[in-house]
Amino acid sequence: MQLFDVVFYLFALVTIVSAGIVVFSRNVIYAAFSLLFTLFGVAALYVMLQADFLAVTQVLIYVGGILVLMLFGLMLTSRVVSVDIKGSSVQTAPALILVALVAGSLAGIFYSTWKSVPAASSAAVTTTPLLGTLLMTTYLLPFEVASVILLVTLLGAAFIARRKRKA
Amino acid sequence: MLGEVLRKPDKGKSSGVLFGDHERYVDWDGRSEDPQGSPGGALRRELEAGHSSPITEYTITQTAMKELLLGIFENPVIVYTLLALVPLIFVIPFALFAVWWERKISAHMQDRLGPMRTGGWHGWAQTIADILKLIQKEDIIPSAADRRLFKLAPYIVFAGSYAAYAAIPFSAAYIGSEINIGLFYVIAISSIVVVGLLMAGWASNNKWSLFGAMRSAAQIVSYEIPIALGLLAVVMVAGTFDLQEINRMQSGWFWNWFMFQKFPFLFLAMIVYFVASLAEVNRTPFDIPEAESELVGGYHTEYGGMRFALLFLSEYANMFAVSAVASTVFLGGWNSPFGSFLSGPVLGFFWFLAKGMAFIFVQMWLRWTLPRLRVDQLMYVGWKVLIPFGFVIVFGVGIWTLAVR
């Protein structure tokens, strides 16, 4: 086994085990903190696929932004440890249908593309300028739409927070 | 063999980079010559195939280091682990020195002497004695603390601050990993520290600790934006995230440093970055996360012994990391201020260290000069002063770059 494979399996293990803790832990704080390892492991897997910019963006946005905000929110709530996580299942039939649909389409996408997608090239390519050019030319409209949506979210959040303070 | 590889390439034979020479950074074209005959030829070719950036002398030096270690241990895992530990040789003595230095600076600024006894000359061995004491302390975990997270937190904090050193160019001859997104990586990876601090604060099960951790998180999340904007201005000028490349662009006399380019925009960018980086490493005037007079010690209130030492070490490691980024990006990093005079891989390390230490000194100086900001003042400075300035700088640099093609 090559060193590359060892590192890959190590990070895959870290990702899967910590993702399992996120899903199955009864303690919300443990779930949130093990999300750190999941997100970090996914970033490492991106690195192994030569997607360097994507990997660093993953760490910056998900670990530095979203995870910290989630932890922040968790710590501001009272009763963090003894929070009542429902163990019983409700609405089994719609959930099963939804899961089957999503899993089926994911598997379908995987099986229809995994042979045609070329393996990650071993040569390190600088992806940053390519991504920048694509975002500013081919994918300009989706990029702008996403930024407008984010702006609307920001305005909405500020509006809600302000109205509460006056009341 | 090492000596042969380290030797400067003959100017006539190969067009390698000559340190201390003005015509540096020429692409090394190994294929057209005879790579078989040259030392380290196999690894050079491998590097050339797998590396998009041109092979320069520093990569050859590092390749030589790798080959030497591979020859001794014959196991890549051991070799890469050893190579990853190289910055640690720097970080630990630096932290020991910086703690002593800070105490001396604070003392002299307050007309005191500071530690004078331990070790003889000006108490130079004081922090060594302190760390020996900390090692001997009993490992105390509060009974009401969350044991697992309490134990894990110092490691995460240190891992986050140490990971930044992977991409910091210590000299022309040494950088942990020359990745083409180095600067972006350094900004991103330091955010792991925040998660560690939140973990430490929450696991301690102490109100002071939790307050400290929350303040720290709020502060770092806000100040990451001016940091990114300040560095973005430089990236717009340099056109690359690669820190070694940014260094090489600033070679020559000191007016080539990015600090003096596109004046005054990049100079302002440096100030914005420096102020925001003070908040990032929880230094005064942004030290509300560990405000001694309000919160006892902030997130590390409940920590003692080696765990406290680890948190303290990562704090100083973080201080040097942000100073190193500032000196690399704005002050030319390992470049000599006097062109080719006094430059070279070893002296480059000296220049890098001197510039980093200058920033550290300013950080310490400010700590003993300025009072602490309140939380609302902190948010005011971050969102209403630094971020608008950052946008103006980015806008100005953008216009300038487009107008003056």
Could you explain the architecture of this structure?
The complex is a heterodimer of chains A (167) and B (405). Chain A is an all-alpha fold and 167 residues long. Chain A has a domain at 1-79: NADH-ubiquinone/plastoquinone oxidoreductase chain 6, subunit NuoJ (Four Helix Bundle (Hemerythrin (Met), subunit A)). Chain A contains 6 helices and no strands. Chain A has helices spanning 3-24, 28-48, 52-76, 92-113, 127-136, 140-166. In chain A, helix 1 packs antiparallel against helix 2 and helix 2 (28-48) packs antiparallel against helix 3. The mean pLDDT of chain A is 83. By secondary structure, chain B is mainly alpha-helical. In chain B, 62% of the residues lie in helices and 1% in strands. Chain B has 16 helices and 2 strands. Chain B has helices spanning 2-6, 41-50, 57-73, 76-84, 86-109, 126-136, 147-163, 182-189, 191-203, 207-238, 243-249, 265-280, 292-295, 305-330, 345-367, 375-403; strands at 169-171, 174-175. The longest helix of chain B has 32 residues, at 207-238. The radius of gyration of chain B is 23 Å and the shape is globular. The termini of chain B are far apart. The chains are: A mainly alpha (167), B mainly alpha (405).
Q: Ends of chain A: how far apart?
A: 65 Å
Number of helices of chain B: 16
Strand content of chain A: under 5%
Number of helices of chain A: 6
Catalogue the unreliable spans of chain B: 1-55
Low-confidence stretches of chain A: none
Tell me the quaternary state. Answer: heterodimer
**CATH architecture assignment of the domain at 1-79 in chain A:** Up-down Bundle
List the helices and strands of chain A in order: HHHHHH
- Name the overall outline of chain A: globular
The structure class of chain A reads mainly alpha
The count of strands of chain A amounts to 0
* Biggest interface, CB < 8 A: A-B, 29 and 34 residues
Helix content bin of chain B: 55-70%
In CATH, the homologous superfamily of the domain at 1-79 in chain A goes by the name NADH-ubiquinone/plastoquinone oxidoreductase chain 6, subunit NuoJ
Largest sheet of chain A: none
Radius of gyration of chain B: 23 Å
